[in-house]
Amino acid sequence: MDKQIKLFLEFLQNDKKLSDNTLQSYRRDILQFEKYVNKNDINYVKATEEEISGYIDYLKKQGKKTSTASRSLATIRSFYQFLLRTKKVKTDPTISMQSPKIEKRIPSVLTSEEVELLLDQPKDVDLKGTRDKAMLEFAYATGMKVTEIIDLNLDDVDFEENTVSCSNGKKSRTIPLGTLAEKALKEYVDQARPILLKDEKNKALFVNVNGSRLTRQGFWKIVKYYKEQAHIDKDITPHVLRHSFATHLLQNGADLKSIQAMLGHSDISSTQVYAQFETPELKNIYKKAHPRA
Question: Is the pLDDT of residue 170 over 80?
């Protein structure tokens, strides 16, 4: 690995404090770029805008998605900004480059009936069923990402206020909990989690049958299992529950700004795949609009 690339990745990890998933994404992108410039005898320190554009065109010809090409350009741009700061280059060749246009499509969502069917599958007759019921209700009630959910600790939930605090290190948000999710979560926390937990020092909200913090893969397997139990033909991932959360709020009268706040989108354009409205008070909007609130 080139020395400057190694320093760039260390900068992202130590100074920017990016999550492991984001860091790995940057790493893949920049190493693929390094491989390309080496193969084509390009000195990246002296690379031109035309040569960087050639790399983006190369990705497209390789069948990469527009979103992948756009992300790769963002990574390369970050790399050159780092090189500028460390005085390894005098200009940034990506400065005038436009990111490939990504078509914003309405994501796959479940109907309210399909959500009802899915969430009715876990039965709280044993520890796992109680946990799974709480997890699915929680995922649909909050619209949180899988990584956000598995990173939660017990004290992130406020049962008095019926809210959950979600933080990714840089920013945090507070999301209301619906009645059904709050009830299922409280039952899990009171009756199942203490038994599943092997180490009282473990603060994780959701734990697996071994008492360890639930993993991303474990969460996906649980969703897939209950999707098959419900005989739903659609491909259901935890992210589909997030999209369904936002869509159902919108269909029931919530405004775009409130949905943006609950999803944690920093840019309103990320939420515009759902619609455009205005913003009243968050908790009242949630209670009125969320089907299971």
Answer: no
Phi-psi region of 237 (alpha: psi -120 to 50; beta: other; left: phi over 0): beta
Q: Which of 242, 224, 275 is nearest to 142 (CA)?
A: 242
Report how far Cα 196 is from the mean position of its chain's Cα atoms.
Answer: 26
Distance CA(47)–CA(83), nearest Å, equals: 12
| CA-closest candidate to residue 292, choices 180, 163, 182, 131 | 180
The residues with which 158 forms a beta bridge, in sequence order, are 163
Give a three-class secondary structure readout of 29-64: HHHHHHHHHHHCCCCHHHCCHHHHHHHHHHHHHCCC
**112-289 carries CATH number 1.20.120.530:** no
16 neighbors 95 (Cβ within 8 angstroms): no
Q: Tell me how far apart the alpha carbons of residues 169 and 266 are, in angstroms, rounded to a whole number.
A: 14
Quick check: 184 pLDDT over 60? yes
Q: Does the pLDDT at position 85 exceed 70?
A: yes
Whether the Cβ atoms of residue 83 and residue 45 lie closer than 8 Å to each other: yes
Residue 42, CB half-sphere, CA atoms under 13 Å: how many?
A: 17
The residue among 187, 194, 235, 191 whose CA lies nearest residue 211 is 194
Residues 6+ positions from 163 with CB-CB distance below 8 Å: 157, 174, 175, 176, 177
Task: Enumerate the domain spans of the chain.
Answer: 3-85, 112-289
User: Which is it for strands 163-167 and 157-158: parallel, antiparallel or unpaired?
Assistant: antiparallel
Confidence of residue 110 (pLDDT cuts 50, 70, 90): confident
Give, for 115, the enclosing helix (H) or strand (E). helix 112-119
| CA 136, chain centre distance (Å) | 16
Range of weakest confidence among 52-56, 159-163, 274-278, 282-286: 274-278
Residue 33 — very low, low, confident or very high, per pLDDT cuts 50/70/90? very high
Enumerate the active-site residues. Answer: 242, 286
Q: What is the CATH number of domain 3-85?
A: 1.10.150.130
